[in-house]
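Researcher: Going back to the complex we discussed earlier. I've cleaned up the inputs and rechecked each line, so this should be the final set. Can you rerun the prediction on the complete assembly and write out the structure?
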Amino acid sequence: MALKLSDLKTTAHNDWCPGCGDFGILNAVQMALADMNVDPSSTVVVSGVGCSSKAPHFIKTYGVHTLHGRAVPFATGIKLANPNLEVIIEGGDGDGLGIGAGHFVNSGRRNIDMLYIVHDNEVYGLTKGQASPTLGLGMKTKSLPTPNINQGINPLLLAIASGYTWVARGYSYDVRHLKDLIMKGIRHKGYAFLDVLQPCPTYNDIQTKEYWAGEGNLDPTGKTLPRTYKLEETGYDGIVHNDDPHEVEQKIQQAVLKSFEFGDHTPIGVFYQNEFVPTYEERLAGRSPSYKTNPPAAQEIARADGTPLTNISKLLDELRVS
Amino acid sequence: MKRDDFSWMIGGIQGSGVDTSANVFARAAAAGGLHVFGKREYYSNIKGEHSYFQVRVSKDLIRSHVDTVDMLATYEEETIFRHAGEVRKEGAIIYDPDQESRRLDQLPTIEAPVKAALMAELSKAGLSPDVKGVLELARRRGVHIYPVPYSDLLKAVGSKFGETSLSTLQRMLNVMAVAASFALLSFDEDVVKGTVKKQFRSKPKVAEMNAEAVGTAYDFIEQKYAGSFAYKLSPVKVDGVRLFVRGNSVVAMAKELAGCRLQTYYPITPASDESEFLEGHAEMQLDGSAGQENPQVGEVAALKNKGSIAVVQSEDEIAAITMAIGGGLAGVRSSTSTSGPGFSLMAEGMGYAGMNEVPVVVTLYSRAGPSTGLPTRHEQGDLRFALHAGHGEFPRFVLASGDLEEAFYDTVRAFNYAEKYQTPVIHIVDKALANSDGTLPMLDVNRVKIDRGEFLREITDAVNGEYERFKRTPNGISPRPPVGTRGGVYWHTGDEHNELGHISEDPTIRDYMMEKRMGKIDLADKEIPISDRLNFFGPEDADITIISWGSTKGAILDAMEWLQQDGIKVNFLQIRLVHPFPTEYVTKILSRAKKIVGVEMNYSAQLIGIVRERTCIPVKQVVVKYNGRPMSSEELYDAIKMIHEGNAPTRIVLKHGA
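Model: Rerun complete. Updated structure for the full complex:
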């Protein structure tokens, strides 16, 4: 039976501000899951803390709304315990690149088969608009008393440097394009990072919906130019097609250069993709072959009467002295 | 006090094989049927600092170390400078005569106050501040001094194997010191050779050469010092299987047996050894207990007879605890192992597990704090922290093992409590246990039962696809289908939540959920039998009642035996489950005690505070220690004796240890 979009909606009250970019991302996620006809009870949306991290409550799959900055390690534990689950991580830019930055970087080293969507609005919304790690130096969004004293992180550059094997950016008001990216990210074999540009109508009065639509960005003829453009429409190809270190290096360099384009001419689409890197699940199976066929969540550990099934006699024998 | 055991010590530069030599000594003694207790002391350093290992052996059961050294085996000078003074009258020191002229002031690794004290002692005795002087000082006290010319003996071994490289030969110094010790004790040479061969079994040539070194040392001692040392160590016949184990590995094995299938960790002393053991033994057989026929095994074996534990080294301890909670959410028995500094980072995660009713086990190897503290040294300073880590109020269990055998069974119980009551469990295994080696009778896997509580494999009563994970039930425990169970979905959140797991700030839901969670501790208090929560040793009617927890158990029990020989009646209440606290039973015991003594390896006698809080009984006499070195049975014996004689201060601080 095909999954309908309405099957993925919950009755939990959604308290995001009207016009919030989170809605576009939520819709795109639900559309992608419906299009892919996923099994809701084999799908888990894991989030951190913040406005965007409430998203799991509005999606009728398993939802795990965790601690600030910790969505990635929670998701890691869930996925490694049960690699048959589809795990999607959602969180804000402060959650992932501020308090959770250590996990953002180190999870890149593992290449676990999950999709991580960062709702990137450059502010901490739920605590009333402080500067987030992606806000540029000198920017003064609505509730900042003085311009931002820190530089902004380039999330795509950081993801590439950290080893993510699929790196992309979307825009929350281009829902169809975003949905396609989410589907690609889910299908990618390995760790996928999707940065989503997302207006915060309440606290980010710079990167507004109108800003991204091109307000004030005129070409020589006076025509308004949207500030985002689609990579795939320019012939850009971020995909590594052969398991060849030179090709990998070339695609990484290309993606790194592309990641610096931001502002009046901001690319969205897939920057980089490499499916030749073994996933962490494959690496674990290399260590313990049964991990693949009998992963932790599938293992029986006791009989009905509570007798353990694990045979530790070999371990005990190693320690015998008489 | 009459000791019927033998205390042997070896020291050396960290990284020079001190551990290996102690291992060989202990294993050989164990192979000879003796009971062994080994204690390892080392600096937070990789190479160059001094480390030493004390091994106590006896034909009777022993559970702790003693301060006295009966034989000190050395192959370099620092061990002589540091430990010669600990060797008892009639004891022995084995040393390398090539080191005689080494001076104390040439050693940068000995702390200035230690040096100064020794200098003063030597100068007072009119002796030179070198190895020769220190040995003379010992000789005057009645210690037997045995020079062993290691380099000559090693060259002789080398010539038989065509090995002339001095650095290769020197790698056998430690084994030679062990062999010389055993030879002086007239211990069976073949048992020592067999142990050495087993120790180096992965490198046959090394094994052969080391066995030859054993023979050479035996020949030398036989020719030169035959019969000169009065104490003899003889193998004894043992009934049944005996194991030689270290704390970390005991816990690791128990985790596999308990069905733990996700272990996360960030490297930290003294916890990491456990995770590394698990990683090295990640793949396991799932076919029931050791070599026994079981009719049910067949079907399971045919289906899935191999299992594995996923061991993940995380980027920090925050990731370690949250990954483990993730595993718990997915229905897998999960744990993380850490020490104080790491546990500090886990506090927020603990609260999440409590709030979301997720089973997770934290093995807390407690070491001396605060902050980095004494990273490789022992302390029981984290009990209060384990009880309170995390903001807000949530249920938890705090379990503390007293010895290696308890650590094994408690590990399994930790997972049972976690799943049955759906909440985090902190299992404290202190550094003294983690780094203790000892002989144990065969661990009995048949004593182990796995209780997964209200674990559900299928959801059948979802409404509109949504399942109430936090369903209201009479006892507050909701059935727990893990994330990923077919038949419905639900949510988790760190926010207060309703039955579905959606955020709710409704005051009546808040009240209900608080009472549901916190009530699980009262339920556990009623359900868990007292025998699983504490141990009571000694006569009902005693002059002194000791109350303690954790690894002090060994020293207390050993001291009690000596006190009994002196006619002093002592009993001992050992708390194993500190939370939920066995209030009723402890009140009963303590209210009829004549004199209560709190014994703890921390500054403020933390358990005593908890006892007072729970029972309103003040414990006025304490024996504490916080210098980073475990309590010995001897110093504890002295302290209790002093208390019994009525001339002790109400707070005795034990100071022994190098």
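Model: Worth noting: The first strand of chain A starts at residue 43 and ends at 47.
Researcher: Good, that matches what I expected from the previous run.
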